[in-house]
Amino acid sequence: MERILRNFFLFLSKNRFFTKLAKRYGLRFGAGKFVAGETVPDAVKTIQELNDKGMSVTIDHLGEFIDSESEAREAAENCIKAVEAIAEHKLDSQLSLKLTSMGLDISEGLVMENMRRILDVAQEKDVFVTIDMEDYERCEKTLSIFKSLRNDYEHIGTVLQSYLYRTVGDIEDLNQYHPNLRLVKGAYKESPKVAFPDKKDVDDNLKKIIRIHLLHGNYTAIASHDDEVIEYTKKLVKENNISRDLFEFQMLFGIRVERQKELVKEGYKVRVYVPYGNDWYGYFMRRLAERPANIAFVLKGVWGK
Ligand code: FDA
Fold first, then answer.
1. Does residue 303 form part of some domain?
2. Is residue 290 part of a domain?
3. Which residues bind substrate (predicted)?
4. Is 161 annotated in some ligand binding site?
């Protein structure tokens, strides 16, 4: 049953019609549990609250399925506004973005132009930018764009997904750039031709890439709510005398909030991924797919008040 629901929510997450429809109706149906609000001031308020609790943030202006050059330029403008707000309010926050929202499906030239505009401002304001990883179809292009931007900018990182067979090769290949990488299990529906179908293999591969990247001496963001992965990392860094300046734990806004606080209390760096904006639909469906039990949590939010 869980697998059926997972596939159902992942199918919905890729549906352009529902994405556009949902965008029109604002933060409804419980998405507010996982999304900080619709505007920059909403996001600033949430970041301030998290910073006050000792947590760092990475902010994400939600946007998927961009069809036109003007939408992509507008998305880039929103990212620049977010970077400026971070600097203006002296927030402890980075920026995360998706290349599809910068126009990846339109043209590489457009993405590069938008990314350079954002990165120029981010560099000036000292704000780090992470390129989120999307589905397998876009992985190669995303990595190639990351590499060319990394040649010119220091403040840029990206994400690798442990469910892909190719990832161990990618982490070795990227080592020449000494990159700051976020390591995750992966959130999209992929074919067994390219991704491990069994969760156990995905979990094991996440531990493997965390180990490789940390032992290479590269900054590592361990982005997982999985206690086994968190405990594995704690043990690994202890055994290998890896400094706490070289890694951080990351979790999503609204998920395992108590665990986030515990890690801060234990003295670990914790960064919360805070999405905001009115294009919340695909993000919200992927969170439901990860844990269909969240539907009860969401329904409670809608009708349980
Ligand atoms: P797993 O799914 O195995 O869950 C372990 C435990 O965590 C569960 O048993 C449950 O207790 C809890 N949990 C997990 N998900 C939950 C949820 N939605 N609600 C409540 N509890 C939940 N993916 C991607 O493809 N590209 C990307 O760029 C990113 N970026 C990213 C940033 C950050 C900061 C995080 C935390 C995650 C991502 N992801 C991502 C998503 C990632 O790939 C993955 O889908 C989720 O993190 C869920 O996997 P876990 O490692 O948490 O473990």
1. no
2. no
3. 98, 286-287
4. yes
Residue nearest to atom 17 of ligand 1 (CA): 291
Q: For the chain, how many structural domains are there in total?
A: 1
CB 245 within 8 A of CB 208: no
What's the pTM?
Answer: 0.90
> Could you tell me where the beta strands, DSSP code E, fall in the chain?
56-61, 93-97, 129-131, 156-161, 181-184, 220-223, 247-252, 270-276
List the domain range (segments joined by +) for residue 253: 35-279
Express each pLDDT in 198-237 by its tens digit: 999 999 999 999 999 999 999 999 999 999 999 999 999 9
Q: Is 3 a catalytic residue?
A: no
Determine which of 19-28, 108-117, 125-134, 235-244 has the lowest per-residue pLDDT on average: 19-28
What ligand 1 atom has the least distance to the C-alpha of 229?
51
The CATH number for 193's domain is 3.20.20.220
Mean pLDDT of 109-132: 98
- Cβ–ligand 1 distance for 150 under 6 Å, the answer no
Evaluate whether residue 156 is within a structural domain: yes
Decide if 6 is inside a domain. Answer: no
Q: Does 217 count as an annotated binding residue? A: no
Task: Determine the 3-state secondary structure of 89 from DSSP.
Answer: coil
Whether 203 and 237 have beta carbons less than 8 Å apart is answered as no
ipTM reported for the complex surpasses 0.90? yes
